[in-house]
Amino acid sequence: xxxxxxxxxxxxxPGGSLRLSCAASGIIFSINTMGWYRQAPGKQRELVAxxxxxxxxxxxxxxxxxxxxxxxxxxxxxxxxxxxSLKPEDTAVYYCNSMFGTQRNWGQGTQVTVSS
Length: 116
Hints:
With about 120 residues, the chain is mostly beta strands. The chain is built from no helices and 11 strands. Strands 2, 4, 5, 6, 9, 10 and 11 form a 7-stranded mixed beta sheet that branches. A 4-stranded antiparallel beta sheet has the order 1-3-8-7, with no helix packed on it. Strand 7 and strand 8 form a beta hairpin. The chain starts with a strand and ends with a strand.
């Protein structure tokens, strides 16, 4: 059974930092491309960052470039999203995703709220 379990969300003030983690089980983690998506209330789910099996990263969401960093630890079957200089518009539920061929898996999401 595949499980992706996110953690690390919470309430943070503008300008603060958070690190999200996603622990995977039931997949061959090292060969999967891992991604972080987010969905704000009333908006479509948005792809924030990806990292492939060769540690190549992408940041399709222009608003996070230079502030967010995705990384992975294959020994721990875990992908991370380091978020710095957080803004109120980063408030959303953040979801972890794994991709290999046609296989897609999702975590349950973790809430990030940026507010003073």
